[in-house]
Amino acid sequence: MATSPSSRDDVAPAATNPPPPQHSSLIHTDLQPPPSPRTHRALRRLQSAHTLGAKAASQGGSLISPHYRDALHRNASPVRGTGAAPATTTPPLPATATTATATNAAALPPPPRNRGRANSDAISPMMQQMNAVGAARRSGSTKPVFSHGHLSLQQIIREGPNDGDFIGALESARWKVVDEGVKSAEDGMSTLRIYVWLVLLDAPIMPTDDYLGLIHRGASPAYAKIRNDTFRTLTTDPLFRRRVSEASLIRLLNAIAWKLHDAREEERRAHGLPAAADAVSRPGSSHSSRPTRESLTGGSMSGASRAGAPEPGTYVQGMNVLAAPFLYAARSEGEAFAAFHTLLTRECPAYIRGAMTGVHRGLALVDRVLAVVDPRLSMYLTAKGLSAEIYAFPSVLTLCACTPPLPEVLKLWDFLFAYGPHLNILCIVAQLTIMRAQILQSPSPNKVLRSFPPLNADLIKSVTIGIIKQIPDDVYADIVVHAQ
């Protein structure tokens, strides 16, 4: 990409390398608040955030328990226009892992039959909950009752479900994320947020040694591209610059690049193709096109069609901005790696594949949704020659992380991870409708759209929920699968 994905990308300060990892336990140890950038600067630590070894597994009872994998398998939810579809399987958990940085979670409540779903899609149940709460508030009655509504979000995450009710616990957790939010300081720091993200993203358990092994491999084939990006990451954000060093960002992105490189080479070997020495740094061939019938109905590819499947993604410019909130919110680089890699490979693999076809599909959907929601604004922008390809590329690629302030980005990501990152398309349209008057009154709206106004996560969420009610089912189905 010739252009930088964000106007916030300039120069980020380097920092010293972190000390050796120190292990802590999510289940048995009280989490201590991370240092706030308002007090003093602390070195990033390569430490595991929660120990999920045999001892923790034997006790069970937590959302991060290995038992949850079985619940995921038993509770495959129906998809649009079909019966039951195979659930996304979770990799087997190591029986004696000494440290881990992520969790198995995020089984989804069944969406209505006329809606598609993505890995984290729960928007239709959310709309039912929203409507119920709205009716309750208008009538002066209490909020609807959820199976774990009497527990706080922290209790749900730390203590797990009652009587093995994983589905009810996750539904309650999602609702609490939207209704109450994740408690955090003014700078966005929270001891709970990264664990909520890991659970909602259904990030697999990853021993810290796996992350360290990727780092010790040295420079990846994409290292030069990474170094060309990291020094420009969120340079106008003092909160990010004071908490996250450039060295930490380089390590994370280099480890991700190695992971993507390995997946790409393994895929090529499986199909009898020659290895590509520069597979990470060179854009790969793109086989991804319009959503197929199988992707819309939840069908899986047969062994014969698997040979024509898209290759795994590569490192692309802009991933530095997408990685930034993970490093800011996480308590260790290992946690950030687990969550970031899951997002890239499970939720939006087409964003980093080939010519970033998923991003371009998302941009086309921004135009389609805007035409439905606000025809006048859509026609005005079209008459000025302004399509989403021109002004919304950074917002689509980075899930709005390119727009400050960072604490509001974190709050918006809470919503996206709870009900599906694909909803970022609607969040972008929501921002356009919020600045509608300014755009329509400007003779040169391209100047207005060069930089979106500061994020207001609560307002964007409210407008997004209203937009969901207006869009046709076929458009929604395309939104669900556009990043796959």
TrEMBL record:
Gene3D superfamilies per record: putative rabgap domain of human tbc1 domain family member 14 like domains (1.10.8.270), Ypt/Rab-GAP domain of gyp1p, domain 3 (1.10.472.80)
SMART domains (UniProt xref): TBC
Any one cellular-component term (Gene Ontology): mitotic spindle pole body
Ranges of residues in domain Rab-GAP TBC: 187-420
InterPro entries membership: Rab-GAP-TBC_dom, Rab-GAP_TBC_sf
Annotated GO MF terms: GTPase activator activity
Compositionally biased tracts (Low complexity): 298-309
One GO BP annotation of this record: negative regulation of septation initiation signaling
Region (Disordered): 1-40, 77-96, 270-310
Polar residues biased stretches: 283-297
Protein name as catalogued: Mitotic check point protein (Bub2)
Record organism: Cordyceps javanica
